[in-house]
Amino acid sequence: MEQFKYKRILLKISGEALGDGSNELYNNESIDNVCQQIQTLVKAKVEVGLVIGGGNIWRGAKQGEKIGLKRINADYMGMLATIMNALVIESKLKALNVKVIVQTSLEINQVAEPFYYKKAISSFEKGYVCIFAGGTGSPYFTTDTAAALRATEINADILLMAKNGVDGVYDKDPNINKNAIRYSHLSYQDITNKQLKVMDLTASTMCMEANLKIMVFDIKVENNIIKAVQNKAIATIISNQN
Ligand code: UDP
């Protein structure tokens, strides 16, 4: 087994990573792929915290507005979507005999326990994967901010921000500009100065203040979660060091 650079990680995947890029909510192959890589990491004693978005099901601000919903309700619906996704991953990891718990910041006692960082940390030490569902538990935030928050609370070595089909942060939108250049390293200040769209501003401010390192990488490349933890993925690293 190749050397793993990070011991405790917080992996953020968007809800879309569970689909197949079309309108399908869940794609078996995509989900199995993520879960098998997590299994490999756990076997290698990497401690894995996971935040999953809900965008494959519902994005509060965008979709709620379309049908005239109050933003708060629409956002709570988005948080519920993240819990659905957490249950999918929980189930699939269990099928692979990976020990896993789901903690949620939005209480829903029948299916998940409430978020409690001390329990999360002791669970890592016992070899469990901890899935953090329900986002931050508050409307007007995103799961990127939840990931920054949880990564800080569990004292993760790195926040792995998985993107779907983009292998880092570019100076221009790489889907539109063929000559867009990928940054190999950025400081948080660069993100603000250059107004780069990596994650929402709340999340990036939080990472900056917590001095948390982020790796932005493409989850669609084969075994790239594993490669990211080995520090071998094509990626952009964001940190306070320049
Ligand atoms: N959301 C929220 N507060 C949070 C996290 C998420 O209100 O702390 C809602 C918000 O409406 C968001 C939706 O949940 O659009 C789904 O989360 P996100 O868009 O971050 O999912 P992703 O794009 O990563 O799949």
UniProtKB/TrEMBL annotation:
Compartments (UniProt record): Cytoplasm
Domain Aspartate/glutamate/uridylate kinase: start-end pairs: 7-218
Pathway given in the UniProt record: Pyrimidine metabolism; CTP biosynthesis via de novo pathway; UDP from UMP (UMPK route): step 1/1
Keywords, alphabetical: ATP-binding, Cytoplasm, Kinase, Nucleotide-binding, Pyrimidine biosynthesis, Transferase
SUPFAM superfamilies assigned to the protein according to its UniProt record, in alphabetical order: Carbamate kinase-like
Entry's EC annotation: 2.7.4.22
Binding site for ATP: 12-15, 55, 59, 164, 170, 173
Keyword Nucleotide-binding applies: yes
Regulation: Inhibited by UTP.
Molecular functions (GO terms): kinase activity
Domain of life: Bacteria
Binding site for UMP: 54, 75, 136-143
Catalytic activity: UMP + ATP = UDP + ADP
Role summary: Catalyzes the reversible phosphorylation of UMP to UDP.
Family per record: Belongs to the UMP kinase family.
Assembly: Homohexamer.
Protein name: Uridylate kinase
Higher taxonomy: Bacteria, Bacillati, Mycoplasmatota, Mollicutes, Entomoplasmatales
Protein's gene: pyrH
